Amino acid sequence: MSAENQEAKTVEVLGLPEAVDEELLTLYFENRRRSGGGPLVSVEKSGDSAILVFEEAEAATQVLSKEHHVLHNVELNVRKPASKDPYRLLLRGINPTTCIEMVELYVENMMGLYTPDYTLLPSPKRDVILIHLSQPISKGPENAQIFPDFHVFY
């Protein structure tokens, strides 16, 4: 299956209550009447979020077009997953009062990079910073251990 085809069949669910497990997610999102979805290929739940892959791209489109998804009296945030880009990392949970020089020092020390190797792009609220790399970061468990706060867009 091509990456584009896989992407069209995939949705991300955020804000899941603890009591919602993979079986309940499967039952809900395979129910056309309730969610607009259809048969799923896979469900990967991690904490309060999940990645769902449908058999058909049309089912994913229908789920995304539905305004409200509610499980256990909690409204879920259903969206397309972030695009995959090995040149970008997202640093979340930044204190908005943290100076940019502190973030630069953190990035340089943790990643062994220097200013020409990356660009920092803070969000308007300054609580999230996109790190744009001049060279792609390699995917692997060593990076997950070194950069636990980074979300890599692959």
UniProtKB/TrEMBL annotation:
Xref: Pfam families: RRM_PARP14_3 (PF23085)
Signal peptide feature range: none
SUPFAM superfamilies cross-referenced by the UniProt entry: RNA-binding domain, RBD
GO molecular function: nucleic acid binding
Domain of life of the source: Eukaryota
Annotated protein name in UniProt: RRM domain-containing protein
Naturally occurring in which organism (per UniProt): Sphaeramia orbicularis (orbiculate cardinalfish)
